[in-house]
Amino acid sequence: MTALVLLSGLPASGKTTFAAALAPRLRARLLESDRVRRELFPRERRYTRDEHARVFAAVRERAAAALAEGRHVVVDATNLRARDRRGFVQLARRSGARLVAVRLTAPDAVLRQRLSAPRAGVSEADVAVYERMRGREEPFAYPCIHVDSRWPLDPSLALAEALCREGA
Question: What DSSP line would sit under 13-50, residue for residue?
């Protein structure tokens, strides 16, 4: 059975670090919304509703293709609201994949510190983006692993991997 790992969290909460560590353990297709956005909009990103819709349609399309090939998928995106996650939840159901939800967190001061320092990766999020997104997090309506990214990730990675492989 394949699994769709759906990450969620504010900017700088550790989603990309978690995804980069988990994907190789599962030999999963890693889909980063920030990277897909740069591929689709290489010159200028405006973060409009239309742009957002195109990015996430592409992420879901790529996820569907990987699941159809029998591969696990890790989706690295903020996915803060239920409506942001809905398409991925439906995709997991349609494809018969196990859904493994992971919410990454860290205290406000830690997130601000991370966002204020130079960061690796393709994310363009800064403190202003964090301010706009803060407080939008909605709870999951299904089981979810909660990870405080200040601490070592290995136990949470092992749990996510075990849930993906359960019944495989």
Answer: SSHHHHHHHHHHHHTPEEEEHHHHHHHHSSS-----HH
- CB contact at 8 A, 105 and 28: no
CA-based nearest residue to 67, from 87, 86, 94:
94
pLDDT digits (tens, 9 = 90+) for 40-84: 998 888 778 888 899 999 999 999 999 999 999 999 999 999 999
DSSP lists the bridge partners of residue 5 as 74, 100
Q: How many CB atoms lie within 10 A of CB 71?
A: 16
Structure tokens at 114: 């991370």
Phi/psi class of residue 12: alpha, beta or left (left: φ > 0; alpha: ψ in -120 to 50)?
left
